[in-house]
Design a protein that fits this description.
The protein is mostly helical and about 325 residues long. The protein is built from eleven helices and no strands.
């Protein structure tokens, strides 16, 4: 069972990451709808505002609690986030409260806790679960309407399905925290590598599809990353049959994720500076950079598991 300290810290770190992700999902969905579906756009805007408010509350609770690893990972905000928000607000006319980003940029790490904070965080998690259920239902209905030609959007159906899976993943993690579950680290590493490798593969394919046809080199690079992460997805799914390969697959995945993160960051800079021809919003670029940074932090954390597994294998060899 998770201690109070772990429960508070892990809850706040998870919410800081995924509440911003969910808020931006709502922005992308709203921006992709036509004026005909203004009622759906209003629903998306309401969801954006709900997650913005939840994120503000989470930031205030997180002062002095989150770990330096999370604070410095670039998964909460990056040095490009403010500019990406400004440019996206300009292009879309969707209001984005950048004061929230400034609050996150100034977060400090360090202290802990009280019984009252534990109760407050548990209630925050419940509200986050309710909001995430609402946005998941919105995404699911929108996807169904798009697939049955009842609604048009400039977002790919795969992208809507992609962000629906992320909402379900967030819910899964919140439920585990509310139940105070201690993770089986090896099983969780295998599960998350399968999940995030597929996410990274799809990011590459979305980037490929949003580039202007004249951006041949960037198209080819994105295509190559799509293929690379498709292969890594298959390798991570196969780990359930051969867990001993986890260290090798994790190392390959870490190298590939650092590579695609750098590619995404360069692309985001190009979108902000108007040097890349694309139909992607700059905030979408920064969004996928942060998801890669989150995954890189996780993969680096798995190295301790992998070292333990290597030690076990070495002992096995000694006693053969």
């Amino acid at each position: 069972m998770l201690s109070n300290m772990k429960f508070v810290k892990q809850s706040l770190e998870l919410n800081l990451f995924f509440m911003r992700i969910a808020k931006e999902h709502a922005i992308f969905l709203e921006a992709g709808l036509t004026s005909r579906d203004y009622k759906l756009a209003c629903q998306a805007n309401m969801l954006k505002n709900e997650f913005t408010q939840l994120l503000i509350e989470t930031i205030r609770l997180s002062e002095g609690i989150i770990s330096p690893e999370v604070a410095h990972s670039g998964e909460l905000v990056t040095d490009l986030t403010l500019n990406a928000e400004r440019e996206t607000e300009f292009y879309s006319a969707i209001k984005i409260d950048s004061n929230v980003t400034r609050m996150e940029l100034n977060l400090v790490q360090g202290r802990y806790d009280s019984d009252e904070l534990v109760r407050t965080v548990a209630m925050l998690n419940n509200r986050a679960m309710a909001a995430t259920n609402r946005i998941a239902l919105f995404k699911s209905r929108l996807l169904n309407d798009v697939l049955t030609c009842k609604t048009f959007t400039t977002n790919y159906p795969l992208l809507i399905d992609h962000i629906l899976r992320e909402a379900k993943f967030y819910l899964r993690m919140l439920v585990k925290l509310q139940n105070r579950e201690e993770m089986d680290l090896v099983k969780e590493a295998v599960y998350q590598e399968g999940f995030w490798n597929r996410i990274m593969a799809e990011h590459a394919k979305f980037i490929r599809g949003l580039l202007d046809p004249t951006e041949v080199k960037l198209f080819d690079t994105a295509n190559d990353y799509g293929k690379k992460f498709d292969q890594l997805t298959q390798e991570s799914l196969a780990l359930t049959q051969n867990i001993g390969l986890l260290p090798e697959v994790s190392e390959k995945t870490l190298n590939a994720t650092v590579g695609i993160r750098n590619f995404k960051k360069q692309g985001t800079e190009g979108l902000i500076n108007c040097t890349i021809r694309s139909i992607a919003y700059p905030l979408l670029g920064d969004h996928v950079v942060r998801e890669a940074n989150h995954y890189i932090r996780l993969l680096k954390g798995y190295k301790n598991i992998n070292r333990e597994m290597d030690s076990i294998k070495n002992l096995e060899n000694i006693y053969k």
